[in-house]
Write a structure and sequence with these properties.
The chain has about 425 residues and is an alpha/beta fold. About 35% of the residues lie in helices and about 20% in strands. Strands 1-2-15-3-4-5-6 form a seven-stranded mixed sheet. It has a six-stranded mixed sheet with strand order 7-8-9-10-14-13. Helix 8 links the parallel strand 3 and strand 4. The longest helix is centred in the N-terminal third of the chain and has 26 residues.
Amino acid sequence: MRSLERDPAEATSMIDLIQPLANRLDTLFAEPLFRILLLAAILLAHFGLRLTFYNRLNSMGWKRATIKRIEKIAFAETWITPFVLGWIFFHPILSWLRGEARLEVLPVGVLAYAAFCLVMGGLFGFLWLLWRPIWKIQHVSAKRDVQVHDVSKQTGLTLARTRKCRWAAKLPMNQIFEMAVEQIELPVVGLPEKLDGYKIAHLSDIHLTGQVAPDFTAHAVSIATDWSPDLIALTGDIVDKQPCVAWLHGLFSPARAKDGCYFVLGNHDTRVSDPDVVRDRMTDAGWIDVGGKIETVSLRSLECQLLGNEWPWFTRPNDPFISDESIDFRLCLSHSPDQFDWCRRNGVDLMLAGHTHGGQGQLPLAGPILSPSWHGSRWASGDFYRSPTTLHVSRGLSGVHLLRIRCRPELSLITLRCPGS
Ligand SMILES: [Fe+2]
């Protein structure tokens, strides 16, 4: 164990910086209870910063294998660092907690790391608190009628195809098979009057892995089609496993919408041997691939643009089109909500996205924590507005993780409304 006496030769400018701060904290947190709270805050910040890193890492367009490798190293480091530091410096920390020693009994490197956690954890913690759904900052107030379908009971089918899935489905509070069919009246700033009442069925994050029976997706497609929408939109992560590519035609060919069914791909669609085969199978099933494209379409006789943004895993349109004033309405299908600013820069009126799965789980009041986005859990799910774009983020229908807590799979049936109508 390291000597508690510090060698004077170690004196550095960092010590000059850290020790006065440590002395100030010693004075401020003189009571053992306050010291315990300070230690808890440092630990909370340590874990919070790793979560912040995890969310950003998964928003990158890097290869999945690379991200998973970094994730494993980061996960190990998350637990090893506090455990090793706690083990090596157990007695000095205990003495400090009891008020028998000052913080300077710890090496300057440990103090610097604790200060880093407090400062950066405080900064990211503040931003995390700021974007909690309960504050409704930049949220759109949309009328919602939610019906929960216990798909297994309604179809009479066994949805779990594997032992792992059967086991997961039985976990208390797990909602993987409780589909929330949400009829949303969504006010869209800039919506032409002619499009008031326009109906879009929005599906996202199908994640055909083979764990869940395709009947779950078929149920969603059937409800979407029965609703008689003007348009059906699918925002990526369609298939994870190669054998499930064979399911695509049977699952998606029954979909019908007056102005067509459109799709983009997501990051999980890179897991099959050739994502272009997914595009081909979807196209064969009657769907229109807008990935990386701009389609000019006539919606209720208005000239509109449909944009497909698959960035950063595939492509996004790069033609400058905002100056085209003949366009009455722009709708963008994007896998990731991180493209919100891109949509805003390019004059998109309505953006539909998925990818974040609503956080896969939501805490009471605090909402989601895990969310593979550069903005963390800020856009994990829901309806948002930042001029000139309205954004709807779906929680998606499934996922590779067979667990959803307070975060039901979502099928959105969106009716567009002129604000105030
Ligand atoms: Fe997904």
